[in-house]
From TrEMBL:
The keyword Signal does not apply. This is 3-keto-5-aminohexanoate cleavage protein. Keywords: Metal-binding, Transferase, Zinc. GO terms for molecular function: 3-keto-5-aminohexanoate cleavage activity; metal ion binding. It comes from Oryzicola mucosus. Residues 89-111 are annotated as: Disordered. Its cofactor is Zn(2+).
Amino acid sequence: MTRSVIITCALTGGARLNETGYKHVPITPEQIAADAIQAAEAGAAVVHIHVRDPKTGEPAMELGLYREVVERIRASKVDMLINLTTGPGARSFPRVDDPTKSQDGSVPRTPDFRTQHIVELKPDICSLDVATMNFGEAAIVNLSSHLRPMAATIRQVGVKPEIEAFDLGHVWQAADMVSRGELPANPLFQLCMGIPWGAPATVEALLQMKSMLPVGSTWSAFAIGRNQFPMVAQAALLGGHVRVGLEDNLYLRKGELSVGNAPLVRRAVAILESLDMSPATPDEARRILQLG
């Protein structure tokens, strides 16, 4: 094989589910942990984790839910790198007639609240959305004055931030934070493609974002929906790492829902092997990412 490629599996996501999503997206901590184990056994070195209300399936932020997922994974003794999100708490959806009120009950959270589970649970990696943008009909708002203390907290507890960038300006801002010492000199980027209204899931957009990465960066990329698997091949061919999972795409192929996350991981493995590449083991991923 020419090189090892890290597969990240994004297990459940932080968006509200439609009727189709409720069929196979893991919801309870037990389900999320079980899917993480199956994804790791299928070839994922990293699992990216959001949590949901076990009764309703709605996106959640409770520390206890994160703790149960992480404890179940660690108790399994199945080796994988745990990547917890810090994205929730940035959503903004003000009403048109009264912008002081939310259309859907979204409440922005403080940097401390958004990183409390990172401090308590100390995963290997956590996401950091260096992004303010229209996000479908709503927006996500991550001000510099919020990102700086979040980045500082993440580094203080010895966790590697995964910088999620959804457009070219986000890479530019993150590179500036790296130059100022606010983010590590060996940063990890996740280039998020095809999310309305960030960068489109095209080769041209990916190449442009890649060209802006600071020297010394490790990077991965993913795309949502039907572009998930083409982006696996494209990112790998351009020297990056890859991400799949039900957070980003519900289908194994046209018209066929993926029953859990493991089938998506196995298809990513097959794509990599067809390109004479291999899925990185967790230990290989630790070396690639320069984790302690």
